[in-house]
Amino acid sequence: EEKTTEEPRNICRRVKEDHEYEVFDLNDIARCFTKCGQSENSACDLGKLQRYWLNYESYLLENSMETVDMPFVKALIQNISTDVSEDLLYSLMPSQIPRQVMQNEEQPADRVRLPKSLFGALPGNRSAVRLAITVLDIGAGNVFKGPKLLEDKGSSVLNNRMVGLSVGQMHTTGLSEPVEITFSHQRQSPNVILTCVFWDMAKGDWDSQGCSTELGDGRTVCRCDHL
Amino acid sequence: TFFALLLRPILDLATAQTLTRISQAGSAVSMIFLAFTMVLYVAFRFSLQRFKAEDAPKIHMALSISLFLLNLTFLINVGSSSQGPPASCWVRAAIFHYFLLCVFTWMGLEAFHLYLLVIRVFNTYFGHYFLKLSLLGWGLPVLVVIGAGSSNSYGVYSIRNQENRTSLELCWFQKEPALYVTVHGYFLVTFLFGAVVLALVAWKIFTLPSVTAGKGQGPTWKSVLTVLGLSSLVGMTWGLAVLTPLGLSTVYIFTLLNSLQGLFIFCWFIILYFPTQSTTASSSGTARMDQAHFVSQE
Fold it and tell me: Which helix (H) or strand (E) holds B6?
């Protein structure tokens, strides 16, 4: 007699390489944000999981959607003229889809400012580029924590929030004016160090190179010279 | 590109060393005064009749012994290197954990006894009362330590500084989930119980003068001192640990006050039991309540 055995399905260990981003897949894989790290038994392929979400930015740029509104991810995708006359300001308020804020509007506590020079410096003579702003809630698990943070007890990503910025599927370095992200938070104890970081895909860890951190009362401004 | 803001709590080498010195000095002072308390207890048992019958001094004594041994194991643990055979570090961590849990349990039992004396008052007689408390006070921590030990939770624990260098290393937990359940969780349960009982007792103490109106109100500072004394018994100084995320100053206050718990217990013991001319007519709220309990037991 032939016995058939089926191993229990563990999406966090066997996330597909051929990135599928249907609502069902996104919801399923987002469970790994809490599942990975809960116990040593919940084996997860952190590398693949992270790549899945990193590629989601590209997927958003390639597809003709405008917004994403799921509990763990909010995104705004827009076509932007490279000939903008002013810096662009977007609200990153928690649990809201990012939205553009006009110059005469009150500045939201959590925001991102994209300098107009960023669009002018893009390679090629394009009249418009696609911009994706993503806010991802990475939960309390091990996904996107990076080796250093996981080793360093007590360290964390502020509010488990990552802000993704993508302009036209291009790497942009050495910006003359930095991209500015403002994170609001409660007043931190003096024995807590706050560092603005970006996710280095090659290293698979957080890095602060090219980013400066300006500490304020109840908010921190991050300025980075690259995307 | 994804961006984020990282939060890293740091304990630099200088701060870790200062806090360690304060803890060591405080623990040593506590140990000396806890030893005095134990000697006094033995002396009182021979000279004062009520000591043989009352349970409260016995519970104070069990707490004093467990706190003395906790301070002793802490000083040995911090003073000795965590290097060496893993088995030795494992044993040191388990013993340290055991006495910490004994202290938490006896503080909880102090609160329970206080509850019987002040809140419940009537029908508080239990056969072999102190024996049952002792089984719980010394036995329950054994079960927890066996559980933590069998899941291989003990080992070297490191506190790292900004440059990821080790500020302090001691034999303690190597697995955080076990630490959260068997230390933080255990503490939280006993602490919350103690805090509730203390709040009820404080309310009774402060409202007592109004009940005995006409006999003259006692000075409020005495009531305040009584509550402060009781709070050291039920371990309110440990509760300051909850406030340590507020900043370094609260870490220092916690370290100082908590390591001196033995001194506070000694002071309480002296105020409560040291024979003076006025002892028999003591106006201390708890002393009266001890008396009431003694009568109700009879």
Answer: strand B2-9
